[in-house]
Amino acid sequence: MSRLASSVPEGIRKAERRFGRRSKRRNTKVHIRPAMLTALLQDPTQSFDDIGAKIGTTGERARQIYKEYYAEAFGNTRYESRAFELALRKYRAKRATLLNSERLRPFVWRASVFCVDFSPVDRFTAFCRGRRCSVHTLGKLMKPLPKDRWSYFQLRLWEAKLLENEFVLAFLAAEGLAWFLILPTSLLVEKFGEESRTIHIPFTRDQAESPHGPEQRIAWWDYEDAWHLIPPR
Fold first, then answer.
1. CB atoms < 10 A from the CB of 174, how many?
2. Three-class SS of residue 168?
3. What is d(CA 163, CA 10) in angstroms, rounded to the nearest whole number?
């Protein structure tokens, strides 16, 4: 046995004999190169169902193949595999970068329109005019029953975010409309307290009713594109 062959785990060598081109077993339903199968098993975007579809079998059979041939090298589950862990980490970092750029793009553009400096920290936090701000993108319009009630966005406020940030920047988009709300955290704390909670923001200007009660109503539209509320530091 060569040094290269001896460095390959026994389970993977068995998979090569079982599924490789030189396999003498004609009744196998899996037709794929072991190297490709290994690559699929290390791809964090591929579930067992996805792998099964690519190799011409079921997701359960793909899981059995992993357990029988690859568990010794990669761990009893895919998430114990060091190679899989590194691939998953790389995939998540790439996805986070993409989400970060997509999420913050409207804020960067709008701040440039109002000649406001905007420097992102991460996909949930940014510095605007030197002030630390919590960033929210709201794209799901809630339409409660009965239908005669007003439609609204849900804004989730976290206690830690309220305490460490001076403003909440919310980008609201639905049904072809989009706008920005610049909300001081002092206003939100005054109306709703410091505890974590979900508040409702109405979809249109004529929806003055609030489920939070009269004392907690906010004239939301007074804060539309109110970038002037953020004083430079």
1. 14
2. strand
3. 55
Q: Identify the residue with better confidence: 169 or 42.
A: 169
Residue 141's nearest CA partner among 129, 155, 151 is 151
CA distances 65 to 45, 49, 101, 113, Å, are 18, 13, 39, 56
- Band (pLDDT 50/70/90 cuts) for residue 56 is confident
DSSP string, 187-206: HHHHHH-SS-EEEEEESSTT
Residues 6+ apart with CB under 8 A from 156: 136, 196, 197, 198
The b-or-e profile of 111-148 (16+ CB within 10 A means b, else e) is beeeebebebeebbebebbebbbbbbbbeeeeeeeeee
Q: Evaluate whether 230 touches 117 at the Cβ level (below 8 Å).
A: no
Whether the CB-CB separation of 168 and 185 falls below 8 Å is answered with: yes
Model confidence pLDDT, tens digit, residues 176-190: 778 899 999 999 888
Are 166 and 233 spatial neighbours (Cβ–Cβ below 8 Å)?
no
Residue 164 has pLDDT above 50, yes or no: yes
* Of the candidates 86, 76, 88, 42, the residue with the CA atom closest to the CA atom of residue 34: 42
Q: Are strands 167-174 and 125-128 parallel, antiparallel or unpaired?
A: unpaired
